[in-house]
Amino acid sequence: MAALSGPVPKPNGTQRKFFQDARAKFREMSLRELGDYEKLFCRFDTDQSGYLSDTELKYALEKMGAPQSHLALRALIKEIDLDLDGKISYEEFLMIFKLAKEGKLVSEGLKKIAACVNVDEAGVGGAAAFFEKKAAAINNTSAADDAAFFAERKAKAAEAAKSKAAFKAKMASFGK
Hints:
This protein is an all-alpha fold and 176 residues long. It is 66% helix and 2% strand. The chain starts with 12 loop residues before the first helix and ends with a helix.
């Protein structure tokens, strides 16, 4: 998927504010999930307005191999545009994934967007995975997911510090 390759654009101040607000409202999603969704939103939001216009959404879907006619694109936006402003905010973008998990998406284009982020193979693996996912949702394990996310991040930071120290030691040996 060409739209999903390459460097992820850094979020600007407007986007970061939307991301922070959404983290408070979508507590059922782990930080890892939200991070993946934020990256995807930044890739699609080419003008960095904090909203996905119909043009940005059309381009993203074309890059994903799911081109839409103008009427289909309008219907797709109407399905998820809660405030009826004709564009998709980050919270509305997150609703795509929430509704996909609940099996309530109608538009094939939105299903394609929801399928492009695969955080934990949700829904794959038959009935066992389905019931495990439901049990986890009931027990609200997003706190455990968040703890694992921070532990992984801490380990990566420690590895980076170790690598940096080794590099400095090598550089010091050249200076002698």
